[in-house]
Amino acid sequence: MAGAYLFSHNALFFCGRLGAEEGAGISQEAPGDDKKTEGNWFVIKGANFTVYCEQTTDLKDISDKLTKRSLFAAGVYDPNPTSAPSKKVAYRLNMLFKRAKEILDMYPDIKELKVKIFKDRSALDDEYAGIFGKREDYKSFYVHKLKTIYTSEEDISDSVVAHEMAHAIIDNYFAVVPPPKIAEILASYVDLHLEE
């Protein structure tokens, strides 16, 4: 797949869209960071996530938007071991994922989730239309069949990501995926109690 790879012990992130150059080799690596570029993508790899980011996304901006809410009171905060933006993004996503599982008291065996971060909502809307054949205007969405959370740099926040992670946890916990209204209530519950 065309893109850039960012490596972390718990996350792989891919931001952007897959293009005609899919399958291309890694073209460059950023020194001092576990981030590699491939085509138009950054990719961060880890145990729980693969994160894909369009190269035009600003990882520092994404990192800043993912740290608006405190997780200190929740007891899941571990000291951030890094200053590299890609590692900060991976670290925070891991903390949010851990907290979402604790709030739901659900610990499904999820081998790997993907997070795709687009530059803006227009690109996210295009991706949604490509998957579902119709246009919608969402800040984010989760597709269970693809085990992928979709969002944009424009809309990303710890609340948005925790909500979508909750959908992933819920959909992978039960033998039968719960009705959308029930899943939405539980995902909203995670966002509501994120800092407790």
Low-confidence stretches: 1-32
Number of strands: 8
Distance between the termini: 39 Å
**How many domains, in number, for the residues?**
1
Percentage of residues in helical conformation: 25-40%
CATH overall fold name: Glutaredoxin
Derived structural class = alpha/beta
Q: Write the element-wise H/E pattern from the N-terminal end onward.
A: EEEEEHHEHEEHH
Taking all Cα atoms into account, the compactness measure Rg is: 16 Å
Largest sheet: 8 strands, mixed
Question: Helix count, per DSSP?
Answer: 5
- Share in β-strands: 15-25%
Broad CATH class: Alpha Beta
Oligomer: single chain
Q: Taking all residues together, what is the mean pLDDT?
A: 79
Shape: globular
CATH-level-2 architecture:
3-Layer(aba) Sandwich
What characteristics describe this protein?
alpha/beta, Glutaredoxin, 8-stranded mixed sheet, 8 strands
